[in-house]
Structure formats: structure tokens, C-alpha cells
Amino acid sequence: MRTLITRARSALLSSFDTELGPFGVTGAQFEVLKNLARSHTETAASLCRALHHDTGSMTRMLDRLQEKGLVTRERGTSDRRLVFLRLTDAGERLIPKIRPALRRALRRHLAGFTPGEIESLKRYLGRLIANGERP
Hints:
Blueprint: H1 2-20, H2 27-38, H3 44-51, H4 55-67, E1 71-75, E2 83-87, H5 89-109, H6 115-133
Antiparallel strand pairs: 1-2
Helix pairs in contact: 1-5, 2-5, 3-4
């Protein structure tokens, strides 16, 4: 079972990377951008927890996104040790351009599934996640 979940995740991420290549970002980088778009108080530590990345890989990813002009880092005003992450205007403009490419990749993976099967899959995955969040 674990192997199937791992392989499905890997296949999806590979397809996302292929679709996002023309935009200059990877699927993992898009996840960071998407999380930053949803919140105005993200830190590298909170992203690590949300996306299950280690701090070293997150730092490297944020460095690359900053070099691309998609993310900025801002020191906290009340606590200078905190560094908040923000999308730049370019990062905000990129997100809606990327979404159709991700939908294409997902449609490719769901080819042949009926609408009912897709709904069942969503329910099963949601239940899998919920069960894992229980103490």
C-alpha cells in the first residue's frame, strides 16, 4: 500500500514538474507559492511543518524562489529573529498562470476515471489524511 501511495505521489510530482517547466518552477516550488498566497504570516518553519520538508531543503528552495524574484523575506518588526515570507507581485501573477498546467497534469492522471470514481478517490484520500491526523 505504502509503495502505491509513494509511486502515485512521485508520478504526479513528475507530471507537475514537466508541466511547470515552461514557467521556471517545480511542483514543490509551486506548493510553497500556493501556501504563501493563502497566508500573510508564513515563516520557513511553518512551511516546513505544512509541507513536510526539512529546514535545509526549504532554505534552498526559498533561496531559489527569491533569486527568481517570486518570494521575499522580511524580518519581523516586533521580533527580528522571525523572518516572514511574502510573494512578490511576480509571484502573485504567476500562480493563476500555473493552475491550468496543473489541471492538465491531473486530468492526464485521472484519464478513464468516472466522475463517481474521482469523488470516491477524493473521499478515500480525505479519510486517509483524517485518520493520520488523529492522536
